[in-house]
Amino acid sequence: MSDLSTKHMVLGLVVERPNYGYGLQQQITERLGFLHLARSNVYQVLKRLEEEGLVAQAGQLRVRPSDTAAPRTLYRATPEGVAAFKEWMAAPSERGVLRDEFHTKLALAGPEDLPELLVTAESQLAACVADLTALTKPSLRAARAGTTPWPDAARMLLDDFRAQWLEGTIDWLTSTVEVIEARIVQRAEPSA
Asked: How many other β-carbons are positioned within 10 Å of the β-carbon of residue 10?
């Protein structure tokens, strides 16, 4: 199983196109704003990716010709970086971080990644359906009435939350599978 990390986010954006630290941080905020990643984290990740041989410096860039600040260092993905990113894209997402990880994969995916995303979405959907089927959704009437001891009422509330979360996740994954399948079919059809 894979896990969500800033390493995969930054690497995916550099695979998409060479960029510099501040530009990457802006892209993360724009495309994955729910993560609220600090700029200093991006620079730390770039350094680690460079040490691991997954990105390399690709020159210097002045944002504005009249800029007197030091030029910014551009980074590009190495072939090893592209391979590592593709491996992460194809890995199943852990359900504990499904929202963040799978949303990140969706945001960074290209059309060529759709078959792997479909497999991941279908796998997550099947697991969620199995979990919901195994879960007995409690009636909260007794918990509201106060006739149930608190530990039992708390367990009932947690089971109710889990059932509602699973139902919502199943709805979202079902729609996601439908959209990805339609895009795969669209991509396979010859252009007129």
From this structure: 28
* Residue 99, domain member (yes or no): no
Q: How far apart are CA 74 and CA 83, in angstroms?
A: 20
Q: Which of 99, 122, 119, 106 is nearest to 12 (CA)?
A: 106
Instruction: Return left, alpha or beta for 146; rule: phi > 0 is left, psi -120 to 50 is alpha, else beta.
Output: left
Tens digit of each residue's pLDDT (9 = 90 or more) over 75-118:
999 999 999 999 988 887 665 555 567 888 888 888 999 999 99
- The whole-model pTM stands at 0.62
At residue 2, the pLDDT reads 41
Rounded to an integer, what distance in angstroms lies between the CA atom of residue 26 and that of residue 15? 16
* Domain boundaries, position 55: 6-92
Instruction: Tell me how far apart the alpha carbons of residues 107 and 188 are, in angstroms, rounded to a whole number.
Output: 22
